[in-house]
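Example A, followed by Example B.
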Amino acid sequence: MAYAKDHLERAVEQQTIPPSILLDQVRRALETPLFRRPRRVEARHFISVYERMSTRNEAILELAKLDFSILQALYCEELRALTLWWEGLQLQDHLSFARDRMVEMHFWMLGVLFEPQYSYGRIVLTKFFTFISIFDDIYDSYSTLEESRLLTMAMERWDEQAAEHLPGYTKFFYRKVLATMKVIEKDLDSQGNKHADYVKKLLIDATKCYYNEAKWCEESDTPVTVEEHLRISVPSCCCMHVACLAFSVIGAGRDAIEWGMTYPKIMRASCTIGRVINDVASHEVTHLQLKIYAMFYFICFFQFMDKFGILLVL
């Protein structure tokens, strides 16, 4: 792989590949490998590439365009339904700190299940991981450790009465989660899907992973090894939850779901990659935010000095 990449980069740099469709494809592959591209996004790109080929088959091209347009219309209909659901929750009025990532989550789930027959599965995945994103904000950025503990206990109880022991902002959210999951379980049952119980199990497990990570961060006062960090943080990246929930909504066998939940080697490897990529991206964003905060601090500082006529002596 490294050998091929090195030679392709050299060929592009030395312009040994003449301007052509091939050159465009090589540059695209060097920028983002094929396995990292969402298949439907790549399909749209390749339609444009195929149009430029002199050997193209017009019937195949027309069918490809029609297929893409039909699926795009289906995705838009899913987003319409999801938007109505999201606005109906009114979470922004109670959880102003939480990120609104519903559309982003739907796009992510297209990378998991893009086929038209899994439309409802995509909706379930999107709702599930929209909640996961909010749980992440609560555990990671907003709640105290005690509030996190209470929320985790309430999730394990899975009972509306457990909401009475929660802080106000999590009480409202908790009830919305239970109500949404109840509808999902009912819908899956009506479709003959026997795995509705796994939706609840996976959501509870995700909150426990977040709590374990929050507790570890709060109580750990010494530097840790990479191995210890990954032992705690790998489960909270929720890659296992993506795969197992996808298994559940498409009606895979219980053996496959249970196997995935045991973190076999292939699952743990995927989770580890997901965690490391997430940490790298988070570090870059945090580093940029610190630079911005520092810039604003110095601007305010010098404005204060200027306003009150204070001379800064270095």
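Example B, a separate protein, is given below in the same form.
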Amino acid sequence: MQHLRQLLAIENSQIAQLLRFSLYGIEASLKQAQKELPSDPGAKLCDEVLQEIHSILQVKYQKSSELNSNHELKLIRLKEAFNIDKDLKLYLGNSQLQSQTDSELWNEMQRKLLRVPEDLATAWRQRALTLAQEVGAVEDNANLYTLPFIRDEIIYPGLSGTIQAQGLYLSQKLLPNSEIIPNNESSDLNLLAGYLLLCIKFIEIDPDLHHALKSVFSFDIISLNSKPEQQTQYIEALTGRFQRTQKAVENADPVLTLRAWIDIDEAIHSLVFVPPSDRYSWWGNLQQESRRMLKKFVDQAINAGNEVRIRQLSGLYADICALTKDDLQLDCGGNPGEVLACLRVYTRINQEESPGRVIFRASR
């Protein structure tokens, strides 16, 4: 695989171009064969092959002088070990480290670890630090890129010594400096504004982020990095829903507030990766904070005399599909037939039902 990627990356190479066109042809032929031979014993493995081909075809052309950059990486052992780890593939699919400098590689790896279960992420962070120390780098909790949020938290450390790489840090000090947050807002809106700013900033630094927000694009999961117009529309939708939530809170109507929070919760959970982050990952835990806040507004609406039922959809897709609409399907991540992410919760408010929306793994 490594040599295929290197060949595809050579600029102005007719052989590289021939290889790329051939891979496109193989990809198209296999997809057609899957449609015509759905019960073929090789159909399941064919999905994995198609994912590998798709991953290889993401390689961009580079100048020949850049092709040997991997040999100059101090963290080349880390890159190679990460890319072949079977446990990581369960959660990241065939998404591999592509960075060409040690600083970029450190950050790319750490951002990917935010998507896997915490125990696996912790083990890999320690392994990564050990490999970095072997080449003369040291952990640095002062060399950090700062993002705004409602609390202070070092997401991952930076490096100094033979490798200079920034870590990532959440800081509540940056929140008051934002134009999004008016003075003397409630703690609920402060939390919501923190989510909004953090989502926007993460979109700027993580090219792997996608969106699945139905009001922006309902038919697919869209890369925010490769589709800048979709990025703009998603951020506008996220900001618009935040502003509507502000107004609902000001009106003090528990049902309007609940509906507004359901909408902004959907926008937050529609910021996804492919495959979606594990629910026990850093990203999963972060998004669950929004769902926990949603429960608070459900209780307020019930206490005001309303009948409210809300359900976060998970488990087997076949068991919950009657409660959803316009769902999205992936062929990677999780287990076949399972819900990978609940984008919008199912609700029933005073006899009025609103379907949920999920991303699920195909059964085959």
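On Example B: The first helix runs from residue 2 to 8.
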